[in-house]
Amino acid sequence: MRKVTIIGAGRTGRGTFGELFFSEGGFDIAFADINADLVRALREQGYFVTKQTDLDTGAFKQIRVDGFEVFDVRADRGAYLRRLADSEFVAIAVFPASFDAVAQDLADMIRLRIEEGMTNKAAVIIGGNFVGLRSYFEGALEKLLDAGELAVLDGQVALITSKANRKVTFSSDPDAEPLALEGDDKPILPVEDRFFFDEGYEYPSFFQRSNDVELSMAEKIWSENLLHCSLGFMGAYKGYEYLNDAASDELCADLAGKAWREGRRALEAEFGIPVPDDSLLETMLGKFGSPYFRDRIERVVRQPIRKLCRGERFLGPALLCLKHGIMPFFILRAAAYGFFVPNTGDEQAAKIEEILASMPLENAVVTITGLNPSVPDEAIACRLLVGFAQEIQCLEGAEKPKPAEGEITR
């Protein structure tokens, strides 16, 4: 059987890459992760269940994925690298903070292929909500490999950007099996058509090969993900538990929609991507508000510092707006709610709390976002974020009930 190794056994690794390769059939699947507890759980259970739901009708199907191997990236290092070297496909499903570690794994894989005299063609399918995925990994590998090793990479192992665009969460069913996942029912995986396989090669049927996936990723992150996370940040501030509730809130939906339109105008100005009519916005809000998919806001807003950084779903399109003379008023208004994401155990939310409490707001915004106030466009973004954060604080104070006469205040 053809081997595929999926680096990252979380929601996207299992619920998108894992399920798609399993349902295709004919693949020997392995997962690899640094989370020893997750590795142990997958080994002991030996399977997991995914549920894909049509967000328009509620129709769903459940797939039990089994028969896979699992590697601990650290504890099983030798066997893990051997598996990577032997794989026809390597799929990456990790957060950006782990990109450099995975690049090191790929560099070690290349060296092992050279040692073993391997010349078979392979493909590394890179997944993640990140603009410039392939460029990032190419740059990281150029620093890790010498000229001869890079020649082997460039001739034998194709780096392929993918758009893993399923919405995958842990199951919301209290009676669900351990490790169960649920999401929408997208049956395809858009991938760059940069493979090195010979003519006549049989690609997985779920691959949707095209030459514009990198551009499509920028469009997705700086418009759809912008809308999604705007709803999440505002919904979290208002105390909603599920994204459905935020999408059904008239004010949240209106402000998020206006942010989306600003992002679309920036994409048109930079890349020539036409601004769609409002029917697309209505469709997306309808899917986010679907009663058939309960997406926890806690999941949507996790790692808020990452989401507020340059190049991400807020500052990426905001700075693109400023570059083209478009004021990103609503994008940065939505982003400002990210400074007030409730701390429910997320390390980055706790870090934001700590930063806001330890320095003036102007300095806190720079520290959290990484913006450089000496750069004109970034200085404008900083000032807007500070103003919107102050507005939120003022409104929060105004909404607090005044103490009754004689009541002691703190």
Q: Within the largest sheet, what's the order of strands?
A: 5-2-1-6-7-8
Highest CATH level, the class of the largest domain: Alpha Beta
As a percent range, the share of strand residues is 15-25%
One letter per element, helices H and strands E, the order comes to: EHEHEEEHEHEHHEEEEEHHHHHHHHHHH
Number of domains: 2
Described by the principal axes of the CA atoms, the overall outline is globular
CATH H-level superfamily title of the largest domain: NAD(P)-binding Rossmann-like Domain
Content-based structural category: alpha/beta
Number of helices: 17
- Straight-line distance between termini: 68 Å
- Reported by name, the CATH topology of the largest domain is Rossmann fold
Protein name: Mannitol dehydrogenase C-terminal domain-containing protein
InterPro entries: 6-PGluconate_DH-like_C_sf, 6PGD_dom2, Mannitol_DH_C, NAD(P)-bd_dom_sf
Pfam family, one: Mannitol_dh_C
Domain Mannitol dehydrogenase C-terminal: 219-353
Description:
Helix 4 crosses helix 5. The protein has 410 residues and is of the alpha/beta class. The strands form three sheets. The protein has a six-stranded parallel β-sheet with strand order 5-2-1-6-7-8, with helices on both faces. Strands 4-3-10-9 form a four-stranded mixed β-sheet. Strands 11-12 form a two-stranded parallel sheet. The protein contains 17 helices and twelve strands. The model has no long low-confidence stretch (mean pLDDT 95). The protein has two domains: 210 residues, Rossmann fold, CATH 3.40.50; 184 residues, N-(1-d-carboxylethyl)-l-norvaline Dehydrogenase, domain 2 (Orthogonal Bundle). 51% of the residues lie in helices and 15% in strands. The protein is globular and about 65 Å long.
